[in-house]
Amino acid sequence: MRAFTQLFLELDRRSRTSEKVAAMREYFLEARPADAAWAVYFLSGRKLKRITTALILRAHAARVSGYPDWLVDASRDAVGDVCRRRSR
């Protein structure tokens, strides 16, 4: 994962196509096949499907942590999470 992160940052820093191609070539020569496949997937603009909603994740976090709903909501408000709790 660190190698892919470095590749992504390198691609972002470079503006010349030849430099970007060189960075990708180096990455793909050294990467394990499974990592290389994921790199192609993400670099081609693909995304993983969302497996849950932010609302469900928030409810699960409250349940697992044992914290009361008001504290989870206050924490969310403090950090600016996009999950907005629906009013009851």
What would you note in describing this structure?
The protein has 88 residues and is an all-alpha fold. The chain has two domains: 2-43, no CATH class; 49-88, no CATH class. Helix content is 68%, strand content 0%. The chain contains five helices and no strands. It has helices at 2-13, 17-30, 33-43, 54-65, 69-79. Helix 1 (2-13) runs antiparallel to helix 2 (17-30).
Summarize the structure.
With 88 residues, this protein is mostly helical.
Descriptors for this entry?
single chain; 88 residues; mainly alpha; 2 domains
Draw up the topology in text.
Blueprint: H1 2-13, H2 17-30, H3 33-43, H4 54-65, H5 69-79
Helix pairs in contact: 1-2
Largest sheet: none
What's the total helix number? 5
**What portion of the residues fall into strands of 2 or more residues?**
under 5%
**Mean pLDDT across residues:** 88
Number of strands: 0
Order of helices and strands: HHHHH
Rg (C-alpha, Å)? 20 Å
